[in-house]
Design goal:
The structure is a single chain. By secondary structure, the chain is of the alpha+beta class. Strands 1, 2, 3, 4 and 5 form a 5-stranded antiparallel beta sheet that branches. Strand 4 and strand 5 form a beta hairpin. Helix 4 crosses helix 6 and helix 5 packs across helix 6. It is globular and about 60 Å long. The mean pLDDT is 91.
Length: 294
């Protein structure tokens, strides 16, 4: 049983992965969650977490497929004793606050864990739907594995912790706005019902996602930043409601050096992801934002 579950970053594929396209994920070890019993000094947060877990437990119990997987009597016993998940993962920031919870519950209470990552993804998707109405299951999978991976409809490829090449630097840019995943995902799904939108999304947007992933992993910097520029333009076209007004200029401006941005998670707030090979120039550019370098 693990003692800590790290937050996650969707590098690429945040919306395409809803429909089983390719995505690239990595852990963010700045934030994490771990099981604890209540203590007086953090009584309020422990009660909040415990109540959230009890609501989640009720959802699991009402779903026959999940209640067959999770040891419900043990989970309920521990929750009645005050067990909670201590977490500093920001809620509404696209970093996996619900993903860490799902991963932690499965890790501690699954009657028998599976080694099939795609099966695990499906289980996690059903579990995390309690929080978002619909889930691909990929976020909890990342929180559970704690290791970078590339996922396609056919398989999950685990990557080394140092897979990022030294000349591609990533940062999180704080929008100072909490995101609400469910309405944004529902909006995208409604758009997807339009055959013309879906056809164009598949032919004009998804290829840039795949190119960004492939060139990031291979370390081809020039091709990567060129693909990122195309992806950013695609997000402006297909995912505009997910881009906050206070970061819109970052998506539309041209720079004299390699720098590009994209939404993180469902967008609509939280963090925006920035990519560059020039940390000094990027830091000056982003001086009015709070930035976390990965």
């Amino acid at each position: 049983m693990r003692d800590r579950f790290y937050s996650k970053v969707v590098l690429f594929g945040e919306y395409s992965m809803i429909f089983d396209a390719t995505a690239l994920m990595m852990p963010l070890k700045k934030f994490s969650a771990q099981w604890q019993l209540p203590q007086s000094r953090n009584r309020t947060s422990s009660l909040t977490s415990n109540q959230s877990l009890k609501s989640f437990s009720k959802y699991l119990a009402e779903n026959k497929a999940l209640s067959n997987i999770i040891n419900m009597p043990e989970l309920d016993k521990d929750l009645n004793e005050g067990l909670f998940l201590a977490s500093n993962v920001p809620s509404g920031y696209g970093l996996g606050s619900s993903g860490t919870l799902v991963a932690a519950v499965y890790d501690r209470y699954a009657k028998q864990k599976t080694n099939d990552y795609l099966e695990l993804k499906s289980i996690f998707g059903l579990m995390e739907s309690h929080f978002h109405g619909s889930s691909s299951g990929i976020d909890p999978l990342q929180c559970f594995l704690g290791q970078p991976f590339k996922i396609t409809p056919e398989k999950v490829d685990l990557l080394s912790d140092d897979f990022l090449k030294k000349d591609i630097h990533i940062c999180l840019i704080d929008t100072k706005i909490k995101s609400n995943t469910k309405p944004l995902v529902n909006h995208f799904k409604a758009q997807r019902e339009n055959p013309e939108f879906w056809k164009r999304f598949q032919t004009e947007y998804l290829p840039h996602v795949r190119t960004c992933i492939g060139t990031m992993i291979s370390g081809d910097t020039d091709l990567f930043f060129n693909a990122l520029k195309q992806l950013t333009q695609g997000q402006l076209q297909f995912l505009r409601p997910m881009i906050t007004d206070n970061t819109l200029e970052l998506f539309t401006a041209d720079y004299g050096f390699h720098f590009g941005v994209k939404i993180s998670g469902s967008g609509g707030g939280g963090y925006v992801l920035g990519f560059t090979d020039d940390v000094e120039s990027t830091s000056k550019l982003l001086r009015n934002f709070e930035v976390i370098w990965l």
